[in-house]
Amino acid sequence: MMKAANLRIGNDWALSSGFDCSWDGRVLIKPLMGPALVGAGIEFYSSAMAASISNQSERAQAQGQFVSELTRAGTTYDVGRLNALSNRIRGITGIEGNRVSSVEGIYGGLTRATGAINIEKQYANETAGALAKLNTNDISARNQQAVGDLNADRRQQSANIETNRAADTLHFAGGKIIKGTEWAGGAARTMLGDAKSGKQTLAGRAVGSVIEIGGGAIGLGMQYRSIQNRAAGQQSAVNEAFDTRVANQENASRSLVQNQEGYLREIVGANQRRAQGLTAAEVAGASQAVAGANRGAAVAKGGVNQGYRLDLQANRIGYDGAVMAATQVRDASFEAARLRALSTVVSGVGHNVARDMEQGLALRY
Hints:
- This protein is mainly alpha-helical and 365 residues long.
- It has two domains: 1-30, no CATH class; 31-364.
- The chain is 92% helix and 1% strand.
- It is built from three helices and two strands.
- It has helices at 2-16, 34-191, 202-364, and strands spanning 20-21, 27-28.
- Strands 1-2 form a two-stranded antiparallel ribbon.
- Helix 2 (34-191) runs antiparallel to helix 3.
- It is rod-shaped, with a radius of gyration of 76 Å.
């Protein structure tokens, strides 16, 4: 029973496999479906292998494109980040440069204005001092002239008083001599008169007359000299006072002229110092503004240069990323082409092998 069962099982397998079986259980192997199945299997295996290789090539190409896109995306991100940083640096340095230039310009204007204010204040003080000095010197000159004129008046009046005193003294002495000689002449007439009769004698009259005439001449001479001395003394006092006043006026004029010349020199010097100070203030303010503008330009230039270097770096990164992405796509395409070629070869070879085996088995059996 076991043998019969085994025969049935073998027959079923043989029939299902394309082999013919006898009724007595012996398997009669005939080339019915076997070679076809073997060829189909080989062709199926080669087709499956070719499909797997094709799938692998497609996946490799897709993976290469994916990696390439990732590379491009990373490169684009890095380039964009560097460009943004470059623009930010340019903007910040430009703002900072403008700020530095503006601030230095403001401080330059402040320096100029402060210097001008100080110079104007100094100029006002110097001109006020020069004017005060001029007025003081003029007052001193006028005072010296007035004092000199007062001294001249005093000396003139003193000379007039002394002249009048001497003249009056001389006139008084002359008058007394005249009076004295008149008395002496009368006394001489009386003494030389007739003692008995009391009458004047000719000799007495002569002597009295001589005494009166002589005394009158002397007295009148003295009075005349007093008049002349008075006139001469007063004229001398007037002349001396006039000369003194003229000298005082000349001295005062020279002093006033010297004062004006000194005032002119001080005003000219003050104007020159004012001009020099204002020029120095303008130069200092302009120099500070120019220095600020140069520093601002240097800051802005530094930002531009730094941005330029970042742009070059971004361009280099973009170029390298593009080259790398292209290389990845190229390598993936090469690999996919190689795999597709291999798939074609495997498929063709499998098909030929399957056909040759099918024909070979058919000829054998």
